[in-house]
Amino acid sequence: MVSLLIYFKEIFSKLSNAYFIMKNTNKLYSNEFSQHQHLNLKDVQDVEPELIEQYVSQTDLFHDEKLLINSLMSVLNKEKGEGEKTYDFETRIFSEIKDILGLSQHF
User: Fold this and answer.
1) CB 68 within 8 A of CB 100
2) The overall pTM is greater than 0.70
């Protein structure tokens, strides 16, 4: 595997007159994400918990990251209720996310 830095901002700035620029990053790899390719899992349902566990063990951004991640995933996994308007659904989801992140008093 070849290690190469790609400066997308610089490339896009040189193509500022272009009407459309398409960026395909399908086969790009990074050292951070390549280590997750070798998960020994028997069930697809185990992928998310295993990745969360690996991520939490590598970082220390929040007090209880695992709980935070699981709470956010739970909220973002909710579906719109029957007869619920899109605006009401989005407002409910945003409100729950703000509560989880402790931002409800700020917004």
Assistant:
1) yes
2) no
